[in-house]
Specification:
It is an enzyme of class 4 (lyase). With 296 residues, the chain is mostly helical. Helix content is 61%, strand content 0%. Helix 3 runs parallel beside helix 9 and helix 6 packs across helix 9. The chain is elongated, with a radius of gyration of 21 Å. It binds zinc ion (ZN) (2 copies).
């Protein structure tokens, strides 16, 4: 809720006229409690997981030949029943895990300094904070994901996410509720270290989860804009992690590749890439037995 009754008061406090974006923000948020602004995140994430995987799922269902050559594991077809199963799980996870987490984390967000007022952040401020958020989440997410591949972590929690050895967009959030909470925590670390505006906070979660959908989409498109991002992993990188499954000791990072490179957990993946340099896709790699041998 903004501490100004009128636009004039806000302009006087800022010492300048409000920009068009700030005027829009004033009209939208002036009378709204910060808690409701914070809960917008829940709606945005549900929209992301409903809408973002949909175009590719429809193309795969209706005209699969149009994109078949880009499929990382071309021999695997995703049954519609699996898509429905994943989406039902997403709704359940939102009700029982993400929703409660949002409620409980509101006061923490206020405590660390996520603000809702004016002025709005500049594009540079948002870009710098988003970069920090991605780097911090990627690093801590790497270690937590690696811990989930311990015998206990895998058997009791992480095996749910690995149910699909050939991932697809709707399978991105398909996981045990405990995993959603555990891997969700590093997403709050960046905003705690470099707190920004609630708009940046929303954008961070939306971008991170669109990235998660892309990571699990099962297609390696050559002109994906994310290929321009240095050290970006992408769909093929994470697809390998699912392909090898339980026994993999490779590709734990969710966004970038540098952690796996530094800590030596990409050796099996890189070996297979070299082996398949004359063919396309993980499915054309040599046998799974060989992969397991390299990983162990
Ligand atoms: Zn895993
Ligand atoms: Zn995954």
């Amino acid at each position: 809720m903004l501490p100004y009754a009128t636009v004039g008061e806000a302009a006087a406090a800022l010492g300048r006229n409000l920009t068009a974006a700030e005027m829009a923000w004033f009209r939208y948020s002036a009378g709204m409690h910060d808690f409701w602004l914070y809960l917008h995140n829940l709606v945005f994430l549900l929209v992301v997981y409903t809408v973002a995987p949909l175009p590719l799922a429809l193309v795969e269902l209706l005209v699969p030949d149009a994109i078949h050559k880009y499929k990382v594991q071309p021999k695997v077809q995703v049954p519609v029943a699996d898509v429905v199963k994943c989406y039902k799980n997403v709704v359940k996870i939102f009700i029982f895990a993400v929703g409660p987490l949002e409620f409980l984390s509101f006061h923490t967000s206020k405590w660390v300094g996520v603000r809702t007022g004016l002025p709005l952040p500049s594009a540079w401020e948002m870009a710098a904070q988003l970069t920090v958020y991605f780097m911090v989440e990627d690093y801590f997410g790497y270690w937590l994901h690696r811990a989930l591949h311990s015998r206990w972590g895998y058997e009791h929690i992480h095996s749910v996410h690995h149910e699909f050895s050939a991932p697809f967009g709707f399978a991105a959030p398909y996981a045990h509720w405990a995993e959603v909470l555990i891997l969700g925590l590093p997403a709050f670390l960046g905003p705690a270290i470099a707190p920004g505006h609630i708009v940046t906070f929303w954008l961070w979660f939306v971008l991170r989860h669109i990235e998660a959908v892309e990571l699990h989409c099962g297609y390696d498109f050559p002109l994906t804009p994310t290929k321009l991002i240095p050290f970006y992993g992408g769909a093929e990188f994470h697809d390998y992690h699912h392909y090898v499954g339980r026994h993999t000791n490779n590709n734990f990072a969710s966004v970038f590749t540098y952690c796996d490179y530094i800590y030596g957990t990409d050796k099996g993946y890189r070996y297979q890439k070299r082996q398949s340099s004359n063919s396309k896709g993980i499915s054309t790699y040599s046998t799974c037995t060989l992969i397991l041998a390299i990983n162990s």
